[in-house]
Design goal:
Belongs to the metallo-dependent hydrolases superfamily. ATZ/TRZ family. This protein is of the alpha/beta class and about 450 residues long. The chain is about 35% helix and about 20% strand. The strands form two sheets. Strands 1, 2, 3, 4, 5, 14, 15, 16 and 17 form a nine-stranded mixed sheet that branches. An eight-stranded parallel sheet has the order 6-7-8-9-10-11-12-13. The longest helix has 17 residues. The structure holds zinc ion.
């Protein structure tokens, strides 16, 4: 069934251009898009009663490393800063292969879907033992989420002064060739696309200056987006100053890594000039508050970014540094963290929800997603607010101030992915069992 009428929602937080909030209204989904919004719509297709529910656009995740769901809470990585954390995990990741990539991606995407996410990017930057980006793209198609995988990479190993072990780095020519392969095979630029591929060297401290520049040239030639980690913590800034003689913003600008087709993860340490640069150039930011807390990286200046007009989306980041992949909980954390830095009026629940929906869609250059408006893609999350978490709440802002953090129903491209809190597209129990088997093998 690809036609639905969602009936009588308590509140629809549309996140449309006027940020309308509708009460007792209906939404008609057909042929992948939102066909009509209004009161007392005729019942067409399958009817989904939304009495007692808040309806929002599907949430958008702009930064993840799905493979890391296999390395949650690894001892030795639990209490380390970024660079030490990476050095603990690299040897474990070097034993991954295609099965680890596919199963871990199914787990990560299932977790996202159950927390209201309809569109996720992923940053896969290591390809040991025959693993390919294809493994994660298959997983996303199976779950039914809209997917923006990025072909990541690392090329500077320990013997060349980089951070990763030599066994996890690739030759730069091979990296660029595989980027071309996956773009040509999977990238779909059309409106309503379910898969868009990006190019994403891991970080300035794990690839060369030449690869950063060549990646930007390739992405522009192919018309795809660019993504990397930037200015994540103080160690990252110190590395940039020592090795490149400039701050990360300057490094990015010099190599073609600013523009509306670029988004950077973290940006915790951007200074005022760099925030201006990002605003002027329409460069996007993936804000990852839980990961930044977990790794003690700091509080990203999201208030200043938003005030300057920088495009900001939300990311759960990899599950080795969160270690949850719940995007609704992440939105709450984004709201709380700005308040720690700037006071109780620094970010409202509605603004955090906006960042988590249309904000992320804009970062990924998907104006066809992230809002409930006629003609936009039918990506919808339905939240039951009759349960314990929201019992006694006065306002739909309770969604982030109180909960729930799991959806009742989820639609992607007018197809139902979650119903009554259960995934319809995969047998979750058997995927969890497979994930447990893989973890046991990695531990052995
Ligand atoms: Zn990351």
């Amino acid at each position: 069934m690809t036609e639905f009428t969602i009936k009588n929602a308590d509140t629809i937080l549309t996140m449309d251009d006027d940020r309308r909030e509708l009460h007792g209204a209906d939404i008609h989904l057909k042929n992948g898009v939102i066909a009509e919004i209004g009161h007392h719509l005729p019942e067409r297709g399958e009817v989904v009663l939304a009495t007692g529910c808040v309806v929002t656009p599907g949430l958008v995740n702009t930064h993840h490393h799905l493979y890391q769901t296999l390395t949650r809470a690894v001892p030795g990585g639990q209490d380390a800063l970024l660079f030490g954390w990476l050095q603990t995990l690299y040897p474990i990741w070097s034993r991954f292969g295609p099965e680890e990539m596919r199963i871990s991606a199914l787990i990560g995407l299932a977790e996202l879907a159950l927390s209201g996410c309809t569109l996720s990017s992923d940053h896969l930057y290591l390809y040991p033992n025959g693993a390919r980006l294809d493994d994660t793209i298959e997983a996303a198609a199976e779950i039914g989420l809209r997917f923006h995988p990025t072909r990541g990479s690392m090329s500077i190993g320990e013997s060349d002064g980089g951070l990763p072990p030599d066994s996890l780095v690739e030759r730069e020519a091979d990296i660029l060739n595989d980027c071309i392969r996956v773009i040509d095979r999977f990238h779909d630029a059309s409106e309503g696309s379910m898969c868009r591929v990006g190019v994403a060297p891991c970080s300035p401290f794990s690839v060369s200056r030449e690869l950063m520049r060549d990646a930007a040239l390739l992405a522009r030639d192919k018309g795809v987006m660019l993504h990397t980690h930037l200015a994540e913590n103080d160690e990252d800034i110190a590395y940039s100053l020592e090795k490149f003689g400039c701050r990360p913003g300057q490094y990015a600008e010099d190599l073609g890594w600013t523009g509306s087709d670029v988004w950077h993860a973290h940006c915790v340490k951007l200074d005022g000039q760099e925030i201006d640069l990002f605003a002027r150039s329409r460069t996007g930011v993936a804000h990852c508050p839980c990961s930044n807390c977990r790794l003690g990286s700091g509080i990203a200046p999201v208030r200043a970014m938003r005030d300057a007009g920088v495009k900001v989306g939300l990311g759960v980041d990899g599950s080795a540094s969160n270690d949850s992949g719940n995007l609704a909980a992440e939105a709450r954390q984004a709201m709380l963290l700005q308040r720690v830095a700037k006071g109780a009026d620094a970010m409202s629940a509605r603004e955090a929800l906006e960042i988590a929906t249309r904000g992320g869609a804009d970062v990924l250059n998907r104006p066809d997603c992230g809002r409930i408006a006629t003609g936009k893609r039918a990506d919808i999350a339905i939240w039951d607010v009759t349960g314990i978490e929201s019992a006694g709440s006065w306002d739909p802002a309770a969604l982030l101030l109180a909960g729930p953090v799991k959806v009742r129903d989820l639609f992607v491209e007018a197809r139902q992915v979650v119903r009554g809190g259960d995934l319809l597209t995969i047998q979750l129990d058997s995927v969890i069992a497979a994930q447990h088997r893989l973890v046991s093998r990695l531990m052995a």
